[in-house]
Amino acid sequence: MSMSKIHVAFINLYKQLSAAEVRKAVKALQVQVTRDFAPAWGIDAELKYYKSPKDVPDHAWQMVILETSDEAGDLGYHELTYSGKPLGRVFAGTIRNQKDSWTNTLSHELLEMLADPEASRYVYRQHKDGSGILYAYENCDACQDSSFGYKINGVLVSNFVYPSWFEQYHPPGTRFDHLRLMKKAFELLPGGYIPTYDISKSKKWKLMNGPKLTKAAKTKLVAGSRKERRFKGRHTWKKSKA
After folding, report:
1. Measured distance CA(99)–CA(110) in Å, rounded
2. What is the DSSP string of 196-220?
3. What does pTM read for this prediction?
4. What's the pLDDT tens digit per position in 37-68?
5. Contact 63, 110 (CB under 8 A)
6. How far apart are CA 207 and CA 228, in angstroms?
């Protein structure tokens, strides 16, 4: 299988995280992407930490670590780099205040950006009565709770679904997620969710929630987050000034 190779630059703008902590996380994510994610999705990437945004090459995609969504507001809620490449954000300060794992979230956002960089892909699921629902092509939401993550060299990373999760025809025993916790397509683990659009009823995207929601899953969409960007639409996206 041929794989696309993407360069992703990691930038830390959250002062409570040291460069050493971020570098350790990036190394673990490199293992996850190349060892675990690429064989399942056919997408590989080269990950690298940069001390300053000024050092990032124009061709690179970016993952920026911030304190809170208010800081993202100062950056203009941008979703694209200055050269028009995909850009993701993780609000580590907010995540820490919720006593959750910023590395699990960083992994989550990275894998989803790699699989659907424009947050524009979806799958149509038709029901027996002829009605149908669109499911967003988000590969970590359904198993997003950090309790379902796993560690690489001591760093917690997110579990993720396989392409088979979006396909109803697979028989029992199919691998639907990396840790083999799911038994069928479109299954939501506790604390999981997925953006959906009911084509016969809805006028906007909604979150379909799994059982026993965690506190993090119950919170509102974070301004500037990937979920909010999908709900608002790509025409609202802005470019970074740096």
Report:
1. 20
2. EEETTT-SS-EEEE-SS--HHHHSP
3. 0.86
4. 999 999 999 999 999 888 999 899 999 999 88
5. yes
6. 11
